[in-house]
Design brief:
231 residues, 6-stranded mixed β-sheet, two-stranded antiparallel ribbon, 19% strand
């Protein structure tokens, strides 16, 4: 996989538009909030989302108010295969994922779903996001309990019924059997490499869309993995 080399070719296929700089601008979809929601009672809660390359998904949630940490990693497969080069084969069952730790007093699980479906990725493309294809780039919510499952499935049904997307949502809703943090060089990637052609083309527009579409949730300074207290 070479994300940068195949990025330009994927733009026309994905139907993305160009802005004055020559970069592709991903279009957000303005969504209604979930009718059903989940407000946790613990000091912190976690949720795991997959939506293509984890660099952009992580960056979006790092700029979301109420999020305390967002870690890139792998979910859906075994611990023994949770390594970037192996996951890239598409045969491990893993999806590139992001574990979001958040303060439920500041942001709800349903609101995180709204961000996820609206600006973090396109939930209507099967096993592909932008230039990246394969099951490791599938759209998936890995639920931790029955309540997360209920709210996720309810919101997908709500959005499909409202026909807010041009196609039906293909997001997989699966139980979380384990989350395995990715290698250190993948963490905070969008913040550390803003000049990367891949980041500039595919991920910085996601952050801009969050700011434009949900300004009440946008945080200018991202919460970074590198800034977290060491265990």
């Amino acid at each position: 996989m070479n994300r940068i080399l195949i990025a330009v070719a994927a733009l026309a296929i994905a139907g993305w538009t160009f802005v004055g700089s020559g970069l592709a601008a991903e279009q957000a979809v303005k969504l209604p909030p979930p009718v059903q929601d989940l407000h946790g009672s613990a000091a912190t809660e976690t949720a795991v989302f997959a939506g293509g390359c984890f660099w952009g998904v992580q960056a979006v949630f790092q700029h979301t108010k109420g999020v305390l940490n967002a870690v890139s990693g792998y979910a859906g497969g075994d611990k023994s295969t949770a390594h970037y080069e192996v996951v890239g084969s598409g045969r491990t069952g893993h999806a590139e994922s992001v574990q979001v730790t958040y303060d439920p007093k500041q942001v709800s699980f349903g609101t995180l779903l709204q961000v996820y479906f609206s600006v973090a990725h396109d939930p209507t493309t099967l096993n592909r996001q932008g230039p990246d294809s394969g099951t490791q780039y599938r759209s998936a919510v890995f639920y931790r309990d029955a309540e997360q499952k209920r709210v996720t499935e309810s919101y997908i049904a709500q959005l499909d019924a409202a026909k807010v997307f041009r196609a039906r949502i293909v997001t997989e809703v699966s139980p979380l059997t384990g989350f395995y943090p990715a290698e250190a060089y993948h963490q905070d990637y969008a913040t550390r490499h803003p000049g990367s052609p891949y980041i500039a083309t595919f991920d910085l527009p996601k952050i801009a869309n969050l700011k434009a579409t949900m300004p009440q949730l946008y945080r200018e300074q991202p919460v970074l993995v590198s800034a977290q207290p060491k265990a």
